[in-house]
Amino acid sequence: MMNDATLRKIDLNLLLTFSVLMQERNVSRAAERLLLGQPGLSAALRRLREALDDELFVRVGRGLQPTPRALSIAPAIEDALSCIERAIRPQAEFDPASWQGEFRIGMCDNLESAFFGPLAARLLELSPGARLIGIASDKRDAARRLDEGVFDFSVSVHDEPASWHIRAPLFNQTSICIYDQAQLRLKAPLRIEDFANAAHVTVSFEGNASTTIDIALGRTGHSRRVVATVPRFSALPTALRAMPAIAVVPESIGRCMAQLHGLTICEPPLSLPTDPVTMLYRRVDQADGRALWFRRLFLDVAAEALQASGCRVSVSRAAA
């Protein structure tokens, strides 16, 4: 535990220096953001290292790599800085009815199909001067684009977040089978033999045919035949209407497809892993009135959309 002498050596400017270095990982960019020259930043970093008795950041190429000690204390420091910011920033109550501007959300296409339409409709009702912008996004670039200000938050299956981001759970996404019964004459409940013997269509942005489904199917001693792979879920209904084939998709989009295109859905005949869908947003936006209102609006719309489609999952309110 730190003694009083150590704590007195650490002031708010040092905490800000640490936070910016964690985000930028580059001395020049960090100094520019802090309005410091590089000698001033180096002096501040030296004081931090002395106070905490750790290197905190080591050079790797042209950048900086945080030490395990830096990574362990980063979330607490970000929380402390956020608390200070909320305490000193005057909070005007957000009024969606009079506000004019953009709300920007990043989603992959299967979640767009389930939520974007209802979200746009609700926003038009509650904030008629606003505009909703949907941005194509996935977990590989969500954090970077969030930092660049491309969207207010991302809804996807996200990786472990940085200390200056918050990843809030939404719901666990299960999978269902979907096909055109006029093309593929199968009746529920599916036998695993029928599932394995049917032609399969998969969805992969990168064109990969093999998925966790093949791993799960292999454990039962079966394999499947993938006859086509499409890059987006929007292409799947027409493919299934054109040939005797089956697909395994997230339940949220599968039920939407079934309603819109007259397709049949049923439970897969084997146990498949679920995907944790989360909301990723910046820690500094945690208490911002506009950002908080938009996150709460999405949670309400998502919960209603899932319930209306027949999905059996509930939406967590952690992001609110």
UniProtKB/TrEMBL annotation:
The keyword Phosphoprotein does not apply. PROSITE patterns: HTH_LYSR. Residues 10-67 form the HTH lysR-type domain. This is LysR family transcriptional regulator. Keywords: Activator, DNA-binding, Nodulation, Transcription, Transcription regulation. InterPro entries: LysR-type_TF (IPR050389), LysR_HTH_N (IPR000847), LysR_subst-bd (IPR005119), WH-like_DNA-bd_sf (IPR036388), WH_DNA-bd_sf (IPR036390). Belongs to the LysR transcriptional regulatory family. It holds the Pfam family HTH_1. It comes from the Bacteria.
